[in-house]
Amino acid sequence: MKIKHVLVSQPPPESDKSPYTDLIEQHNLNVCFRKFIKVESIGAKEFRRQRIQIPDHSALIITSKNAIDQFFSLCEELRVEVSDQMKYFCTSEAIALYLQKYVQFRKRKIFFGNGQFSDLLGLIKKHKDEKYLFLCAENHKKDYPQLLKQHKIQFTIAPIYRSVPEDLTDVNIEKYDMLVFFSPFGIKSLLENFPDYKQNDTVIAAFGKATVKAAEKEKFNVQIQAPTETAPSMIMAVQEYLEANKK
Fold it and tell me: Nearest-CA neighbor of 217 among 176, 175, 193, 181?
């Protein structure tokens, strides 16, 4: 089947020149970007039920920009002032730089890895005396806390936000030849918005093992998976598929 219409379950790129541009031009695709999920704060009332005292912690573990936004918003709601001595441990430089939205970057102790949690863990182990607050979503990855426990890191898990489905009822889901997903929540959103959805001939692409597992649990046939050795990004994986299926 020739692929013409592609729905990517992410927000539109911020600039006209996106990583998808070459793919669109090369294969004459009509690519639509649409968020399938949105992030909501759990709110001060629900956070208080966890009995977590933010000032009792000396360092934050941050794995996403969403966590930064939700943390500072929550602190404002709780009327908690974040100490100038707080240390920030981020999985990537991009996430660390995002802290500039809320703190004076050069005046804070900010550490970051290369995008892998295992790399960040090496930095955390060098600061074992800190009391860490691990900022995360309600349905966070369990392997990160397990790694922290294995290395005897003092930490508290702080679920401060949740992912919920976007309203997609204005989308004509049947017109798309390919759907591209980046998280299990995207699969959940698809089925909540379109409970009678049938894959039929639609090509489904999924990034990450958890996303693939969620799709296969719903009996979807995942034809495109990323990352792989030859396709570390979703765009490269889609490119491989389209090249292999040229007629």
Answer: 181
Q: Is the pLDDT of residue 79 over 80?
A: yes
Q: Contact 8/178 with Cβ under 8 angstroms?
A: no
**Percent of residues, the chain, with pLDDT higher than 90:** 76
Q: Using alpha carbons only, what angle is made at residue 72 by residues 70 and 73, rounded to the nearest 5 degrees?
A: 60
* pLDDT exceeds cutoff 90 at 13: no
**Domain 40-163: CATH architecture, name and number where available:** 3-Layer(aba) Sandwich (3.40)
Q: Choose which CATH entry (3.20.20.70, 3.40.190.150, 3.40.190.10, 3.40.50.10090) describes domain 5-36+169-244.
A: 3.40.50.10090
Residue 130 sits at φ, ψ, to 5 deg, of -75, 155
pLDDT at 247: 58
Cβ–Cβ < 8 Å for 180, 91: no
